[in-house]
Design a protein that fits this description.
By secondary structure, this protein is α+β, with helices and mostly antiparallel strands. It has 2 domains: 116 residues, Sandwich (Immunoglobulin-like); 33 residues. 32% of the residues lie in helices and 28% in strands. It contains 2 helices and 10 strands; from the N terminus they run αββββββββββα. Strand 9 and strand 10 form a beta hairpin.
């Protein structure tokens, strides 16, 4: 009988340890809002949404997600007026944060995202952008492609103008060159002198 009493606490401790070890590893990823480009001084209409799963890929509900903005440079504040905000994951393991207000310093910045549940932690960085004033909020790659297309169009137009100029110059040169050749084709031949004597 005493042996059974000794085994029972050991079993309880083993079950408690197993319960605490249910979430040993957290995995976090950004599912919406990554790489967003914001207009200077604007309020972002897009939420930043992350998803948290365990090592088996199962959604983790009730994980605390903290979002952290840089202290200086391109940055902003969250809806609470601070550079740190916290959200809790729903049954699908997702948590969203919206209402980001950007400052007017253009450039790339990072939002550090940390997930915590019991003793497990995970972190990720989301890259965001503040566009230059007057450039509009477009993705940097798209903006670069747009500039490339503009330069391409300008180059094509310039090339066409240059080609037209060359053709025009060639046409003028051809006309000018044709004048001497046409005049040389109507040449005058001078033969021996002829004298005619008539009666007085």
């Amino acid at each position: 009988m005493p042996k059974r009493w000794f085994r029972l606490p050991a079993l309880v401790l083993a079950l408690a340890a197993a319960a605490n070890a249910q979430i040993a590893i957290l995995q976090i990823r950004v599912v919406e809002g990554e790489g967003a480009v914001h207009a200077p001084g604007s309020r972002s209409p897009r939420p930043l949404t992350v998803e948290v799963t365990d090592e088996s890929g199962k959604p983790v509900e009730g994980a605390a997600i903290s979002f952290h903005l840089p202290e200086d440079g391109p940055t902003g504040t969250f809806f609470n007026g601070l550079r740190t905000a916290v959200a809790i994951t729903d049954p699908s393991g997702r948590a969203s944060l919206s209402g980001l207000i950007l400052n007017r310093t253009s450039g790339r910045f990072e939002i550090r995202v940390i997930a915590s549940r019991e003793q497990a932690h995970a972190g990720i960085v989301s890259f965001q952008y503040i566009a230059e004033a007057g450039s509009g909020a477009a993705h940097p790659a798209a903006a670069a492609n747009g500039k490339h297309r503009k330069w391409l169009i300008v180059a094509v137009l310039a090339g066409a103008a240059a080609a037209a100029g060359v053709l025009g110059a060639g046409h003028s040169a051809g006309t000018t060159a044709a004048s001497p050749s046409s005049s040389s084709s109507s040449s005058i031949s001078i033969g021996p002198p002829t004298v005619t004597v008539t009666k007085p």
